[in-house]
Amino acid sequence: MHGPMLNTVVDAIGANLLSVWAEPPDPAVRCNGVVIHDSAAEFAAEPGDLLLAVGVDAAGAPDVLEEAARRGAAAVVVRGSAEARERLGTLARHAGVALLALESGTGWAEFSGQLRGLLTTSGAGLDAEASAPPVRELADFANALCESVGGSVMIFNPQQEVLASSRLADSDDAMRRQAALDQRGPAWYRSRLREQGVYRRLWRDGDVVDIPAVPEHGINRRMAVAVRSGDEILGSIWVAERGGPLPEDAPVVLRRAAASAGQYLSRMGVRTQTRRRAAESAARRLLDGTAEDEALEWLDVDRDRPAAVLSCVFADGRPHDTRAFADLLSVHLPALDHPAVPVASRGRVDVLLCGVEGRGGAELAGAVREVVARAAAAAGCAVLGALGTVVADAGRAPESLAEADLVLRVLRGRGGAHTCVVHPGEVRAAVGALVLADRVAEDARFADGPVPDLLAYDRRHHTDYAASLAAYLDAFGDVIAASRALHVHPNTLRYRLRRMGQICGIDLDDPDERLVAALCLRRSGLDLRTRGAAEAQSRA
């Protein structure tokens, strides 16, 4: 079995933990295992192994690099000072092996665990002992809790995916059986829980949540509690009645169970974190248009199925924690019932939505609106969301991203202050005007003319003629409306319009002149939108 490519591993682990001191001779080299180098034992690396050179000093590094290259290791990982980088990097390049450096402050055991978790999620062949115990122990824990509380137990991650469950019994209700089959449970029931505020109480209140039965659907009463590590939510434990009511002390038992479950979920969290980083790295390359088929395989995405991109920015324009917002989106994205991968970058979060066949832009935007509204409410800030066009296959995701970028530019230009999600069909004319304005900026024939001359005059004399012209054109020649938008007297605007002819020679009676001027002003960011186009807001 083949693991991920080395560059995928580096991207997934992150530059804050791992630096590349020497690139691999073969960019497509894959990582199949993790081996810790022991200088007192026989050299154990095999082709495709990541060799962790624990305790290897500068004197012993050349021999380790030479032997690792001879055995076909994917890379050697060292911990060295910045001063050693050039020397060790040169040695690695000469030997013909990639060299990575682990940042100070990160333990080898923690780093090894992250690597093993990452390779395990990719299907690489590691020994079962390194990856299986947390899952087995969590299943044993669920069965023990089931015996203690007398109800059917399921343990979920924050995305409401089943991590472990107690053994099925004849008295389990249909919902419990359905969740065991599809590992999440029916979408309509999860929607019902969201509407009733169950998830909000679960994540925010920190206590046991009591969920009433739904007899008409054969659903028994349930109790749930979040599993936390400090402020971080690791997952949740759900107990369903079976054969009789839950005991009176069930909430007490659940609180204690949540405290104990943290150790198991924390261990599994290493694997979850590395898997998420790897998925994010693959999605980022897909959005950049640089992904190979490996990215789609890693994401478990069918290239031939339709896809779309959602782009989110913060409405106030101030710096926010995009990683935290991406995590909030991850909690709510499963409600869409489509594979979705949020990619956090500086100032924005892009979400790759896959398998969206059968949903047009308006329908998909309606579903996405709910997700963004809930995440924005949890974050406590307004978010502008732009949904790109639905493209025929995931390989064309960059096209959807480009369309979402245009929609975001429109929303920013309108100065929206409320959470909203807009798709291209809702702002088609504004997007078209942006595209035309961009073409104008790219054409050298528009570098000179009335508007460039007017802008240059404003810069030299600290005047506002260009803004006055933009308001006049946007108001379709209505001096009263334009002067109101500019907060000046109508006669002041009339004077400015006369002066413009003298300054730049513009003929406002010529419709072609007005059209070109409007496009040039739009490209300069002087579209005041005095007509006050309605802003599409979230139903929330």
UniProtKB/TrEMBL annotation:
This is Helix-turn-helix domain-containing protein. Residues 467-522 form the PucR C-terminal helix-turn-helix domain. It comes from the Bacteria. PANTHER family: CARBOHYDRATE DIACID REGULATOR (PTHR33744), CONSERVED PROTEIN (PTHR33744:SF17). Gene3D superfamilies: PucR C-terminal helix-turn-helix domain (1.10.10.2840).
